Structure formats: structure tokens, C-alpha cells
């Protein structure tokens, strides 16, 4: 089993030593838990791909303390990227920038660009400070499955990795992955929706394009099916939800429901999501994992009625989870 270590000076020191020795370390960020290796350590990066079962052409996000540390992995910082960092770092914003020559290609899925983000979670920041190097970390789930928002989720996903250190920073405050903006194009392109909104980006960067469909293999966050429970899953409008639950149950199937409002019919397992957007995002992956663990034949998820702000990112994750 992995080793869940409580957040403290000693566990951060131990985790930093493990990273310097080329061992993977899972750690809390404000978005989701990451599975990290030093960005410049090619062998350790390859272990991360192997542990996740992630295709080698899917690039990783390098986590950094600040712009000076980011400069060790991304060479060219123009006024746009500096402005975005000044306004939105540390926080759940990932910027795609040109890759510095020192970074192994393997850390970026073979691309000449690198995704960089400065997390705001104090545990992630202490770890970055202790390692004094960028840490590449994809979400700490098996490739294609539901991201982890607690240390227990990570331990559950890697039962066969004895001694894997999981630094426990509590439940993730944001709960869905960072917004990804590509600053290598003439106009900024949003590649993944997250809690940093399009409006916030436009305020800082001016007009942006949004291209999240982008089915290129090199974008795991944009694979059509992703963030998925193992159980067959359906995303349904409120109007179709109860009928579907009744139909599935009368066909003899056990149904787990993930809902935003009170159900008028029985289901075999029910998880309620908060009706407020930020709280819903924070609870989302734990709800999907609970529904998946309920040993049902089908998961039926209520589609949120709203699509503004954080709801757009929630809708995006739910659509991919059920694709
Ligand atoms: O919130 C987050 O970003 C979390 C935490 C741990 O920081 N990390 C995360 O990593 O979500 P991952 O590997 O699950 O997702 C990486 C995303 C993918 O959508 C990938 O396509 C994009 O970042 N990405 C990374 N490098 C890229 C690059 N060079 N060009 C285009 N997209 C890139
Ligand atoms: Mg991921």
C-alpha cells in the first residue's frame, strides 16, 4: 500500500528526498492530487508515465513556485505570459509556453512546448520549496479514470505501489483540474476549462479562443472519454433522470444516482452534489468515485441546468466522464 503522510515539515522533507532520489511522490494541490517527479529527471518522468499507464505522447504539467523557477523549464516569457502570471499565479491556471532546452522531451510528450503552473496549495508550495526544482505532475489517477481529490483516492488507485508517498493536504478546495491556456499561438487559446474563467483570462489577456474539442492524442484532458468511472455512466437532464432510473431498475439493473436535486424515485445508491457551483466542483470527483464503488450496473448523473462560469467546466468533465 502507499504511505499517506500527514502534512508537516518532516513529511515534506522526506518527500523532497524521495523526489531527489528519483522516486515518485503524490501530493495535494488546490485542484486535484498530482503524481510528481522532478521535471529534469528523465528516468523518474518515465516512471510516472508507466505508473499511470499514460500514453508517452501525453504531455505533463510542470509545477513551479514562481516565475523565476518557471524560467528553468520554459525559456521564453513574453509580456502576455508575465501578465497572466502576475494576475493569476499562484493558482489553478496552466500556461503552455516554449520548452527550455534543459527539459527532457519525455516530460512534454515529445513537444517543443511545456505546460507550467504555480499551485497555491501550501503543501505543494512547501514541497516545491524543499525540492528547489520544478515538479512535473499529472493528476494522480490511472490514465482515463476519475481524478483524485483526497489522499485516500490516490492510495485507492495505486494499491500495488508499496511505499509510494502520498502527502496528505486534505480534500482539494477547487476539485477539478486547472484551466489550460496556450500562449504559443498568436492569440491565447484555452485548451481546458477550469475554475479560472474565460472572463478572468479575457480581463488579463484580451480576446482568447477556446478550443477544448481538440481531439489530438497529445491532450489527455481533451480526449473525448476521460475522467470516467468504470461503471457504465449516463448524463441526463433533470426531466429524463427519474424515468431512466425507473426504467433501468425495472430491467433488473442496480442504479447509482448522482444528483443536484431531490429524487422523486428510489435508486440503489444516491450521492447528492451541492447546488452551488464551486462547492459542486469540489465534491464532483468524490461523488463519481462513491457512485463507482457502490457496485451498481449503471451510474445516472443529473446534468446541471447552468453552463455559466464554473458550470461550463463541470459540464465538460461530466460529458467526458460519460462519453
Ligand atoms: O490542476 C491540474 O492541472 C492538475 C494538478 C495536479 O496540477 N494536473 C493535471 O495534469 O490535470 P494532467 O496531466 O492530468 O493534465 C494535463 C493537461 C492535459 O489536458 C494536457 O493536454 C495539457 O495539460 N498539456 C500539458 N502539456 C501540454 C502541452 N505542451 N501542450 C498542450 N497541452 C498540454
Ligand atoms: Mg488528468
What's this entry about, in short?
By secondary structure, the protein is α/β, with parallel strands linked by helices.
Describe what this molecule looks like in 3D:
The chain has 323 residues and is an alpha/beta fold. The protein has 2 domains: 3-210, DHBP synthase (Alpha-Beta Complex); 233-321, Threonylcarbamoyl-AMP synthase, C-terminal domain (Rossmann fold). 32% of the residues lie in helices and 19% in strands. It is built from 10 helices and 15 strands. The chain has helices at residues 9-20, 42-52, 67-70, 79-88, 122-131, 151-157, 198-205, 238-250, 277-293, 310-321; strands at 3-6, 25-27, 34-38, 61-63, 93-98, 113-117, 135-136, 165-168, 179-182, 189-192, 209-210, 232-236, 255-259, 269-272, 298-302. The protein has an 11-stranded mixed beta sheet, with helices on both faces. β10, α7 (198-205) and β11 (209-210) form a beta-alpha-beta unit. α1 (9-20) crosses α5. The longest helix has 17 residues, at 277-293. The radius of gyration is 19 Å and the shape is globular. The chain starts with a strand and ends with a helix. The mean pLDDT is 95.
Keywords, please?
323 residues, alpha/beta, DHBP synthase, Rossmann fold, eleven-stranded mixed beta sheet, four-stranded parallel beta sheet, 10 helices, 32% helix, 19% strand, globular, binds threonylcarbamoyladenylate, binds magnesium ion
